[in-house]
Amino acid sequence: MATLIATERIKLLTTRSPWWSTVLALGLTTGFAVIFALNSSSPADVEVWHTQLGYQFGLMVVMVMAALAVTTEYRFSTIRATFLAVPNRTAALLAKTGVVAALALLIGLAAAFGSLAVGWTLIPDANLALNSADAWRMVLGVPLVFTVAAVISVAVGIMLRQSAGAIAVVLIWSMLVENLVSLIPQVGAEIRTWMPFAMTEQFLQGPLEGRPLGPWASFAYFAGVAVALLVAALVVAKKRDA
């Protein structure tokens, strides 16, 4: 497994996409923190969570990067060489998922603490001390969400194998579908609270009124969805031709 992980790391980091994605994700996330800080009129009202409001921009970039990490191999048929060298497809795909998830974690850490540093620098009078469990969760929760979202994107990429389709699914689902569900009369709002990306709101911002689970239970739910999708993707990958 160590050899597989090393191989996947080399394959991932020797392409331009992850590097550009890292720069873009960090730029968008911290850039939003800069904009918020410069437009903040009352430092007393600024809290730790406000420095993390731009995480969704970075999250979208990370999800696209994760989907491309697997769909690009299918597009250029290099995945066939991987499966010929490693007959155990599950091990090969798990190694790829682990490497992509690790990169997403590092990007999330840099984005979260970079945004917090922006707040400390530009709003020195704000209450941005990490002096509570909730404050730490709001910051460290961002890289955790990035990591799980990357796993979801890889799973979707394995199942769909096409870059455009996989990117469309992960972005439309997270940005559009879950919000449109709330428009369903009577039951829409309640259904949305059980959507996976809606759970991340409760995890990072919570506890929020009207949500069915607590912050950490919401994250467990989100992670459970990722695991279920990954298992389904591995089953599909084993049953069909590369």
Order of helices and strands: HHHHHHHHHH
The Rg value, from CA coordinates, equals 19 Å
Alpha-carbon distance between the termini?
A: 21 Å
Helix tally? 10
Mean pLDDT over the residues: 90
Total individual domains: 1
Helix content bin: over 70%
Question: In what range is the share of β-strand residues?
Answer: under 5%
Largest sheet: none
Tell the overall outline: globular
What structural class is derived from the secondary structure elements? mainly alpha
Low-confidence segments, ≥5 residues, pLDDT <50?
Answer: none
Q: Report the strand count.
A: 0
Protein model, in words:
The protein has 242 residues and is an all-alpha fold. It is 76% helix and 0% strand. It has helices at 2-13, 16-38, 55-75, 78-85, 89-122, 133-160, 163-181, 188-192, 196-205, 215-239. The model has no long low-confidence stretch (mean pLDDT 90).
What's the quick description here?
This protein has one domain (2-239).
Topology:
Layout: H1 2-13, H2 16-38, H3 55-75, H4 78-85, H5 89-122, H6 133-160, H7 163-181, H8 188-192, H9 196-205, H10 215-239
Helix pairs in contact: 1-5, 2-3, 2-5, 3-5, 3-6, 3-7, 5-6, 6-7, 6-9, 6-10, 9-10
List keywords for this structure.
single chain; 242 residues; mainly alpha; 76% helix; globular
